[in-house]
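Hello again, I could really use a second opinion on something today. I've been staring at a protein lately and its backbone has me curious. Please have a think about how the structure follows from the sequence. I owe you a coffee for this, so here goes:
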Amino acid sequence: MEDNNLQRTLSNRHVQLIALGGAIGTGLFLGAGQTIAITGPSILLTYAIVGIVLFMFMRGLGEILISNSNFKSFADITNEYIGPFAGFITGWTYWLCWIITGMAEVTAVAKYTSFWFPQIPNWISALLCVLMLMTINLFSARLFGELEFWFAIIKISTIILLIIVGILIIIIDHKTNYGHATIKNLYEFGVFPEGLTGFFMSFQMAVFSFVGIEIIGVTAGETQNPSKTIPKAINSVPLRILLFYVGSLAVIMSIIPWNQINPNNSPFVHLFSIIGIPFTAGIINFVVLTAAASSCNSGIFSSSRMLFGLAWQRQAPYPLRTTNRNSVPYIAIFISSSMLMVTVLLNYIFSDATLVFIYITTIATVLFLIVWGLIIFSYIKYQKRNPEIHKNSIYKLPGGRISGYIILFFFIFVFALLFVNPLTRTAILISPIWFLILILMYWKYKY
């Protein structure tokens, strides 16, 4: 079926859980230890600040999406309010972001699978993962939403369990190898161990943790009653940040002093082992496996919808706008999934491809920040062009353009911090190669 529109099959509960699970990735479960070791308890303040900024960012994105139901994604938004070239950059860059992220997550799935089945080569696990998720995405957007719903349930349930049990341990003043569990551990051993430098460096870590929060903007074209569903999903952002990030890390550091946390191990695994829950390693391995699979699943969905939207804007090959009888862009799904198959090849060639993807994912995070900047700049242009629509909007960004400029400045500030870290600095210096390619591609499609 050609030139068909996407169908609105994602229900309220799907979008709610996609929103809740979007910002909870392997970075929280596995990378929290390293973040805490570098930053100390001040990481709680960092997440609170970044959370507020990103909530405002999502309010602006939500306002624009509701103002025009014809927007299929935020690439359409930047195309409308900045120009075709901005839409082209947004769409293709976001596509690349999720392809690269998906590659890293497929590799992660293979690594986590080998925990239980070490005899199965990583490339086979990676291949099965891509084929399974591609098949699911080919059936319907609703099936994608259903899978993300249960992936999110697993991640959320794990964090809530940790918080509840952790609070009980603190209340009963439980004694561990590190002393008594108490909230005093949050400040007795220093809140800003590395001073303001360490505190500011933590911003880039926190921002990277929330990659995927914008995926609500990709589901807009397939969401039932978006004017009600999208605001509900976005309004859940502050609660999930306070509960899942600030809450879980505060509980962990109250039981295990931050300076006693091993940066090379997951603090979640450590805390569950202290509690005495059996099969701790297996439980957390299952959780991070689902988190990685969830990210890969979101990658296939998001990247294919971007290709679909670009094709409708005549900025990608025409066949990519083709949908099947299930009203999903199957050619775009095939292309994105095929790109992920590169991971299978790399896992076959290299015994440990993870190191390759650590560096590549760093480039992706730089590109995500650029996409976010283009989205909020579009909001500024939207509010300037449509003051009456903004004034009468049922869901708006408080503060309008002023808030938009503050958010944009914050993104620029974090981007500047990337130059301090040698690894991320190199990623910034490499990223212009991608934009040179985009300029050549745009010239081809325009002329």
In short: The longest strand covers residues 175-176. The first helix runs from residue 12 to 22. The radius of gyration is 22 Å.
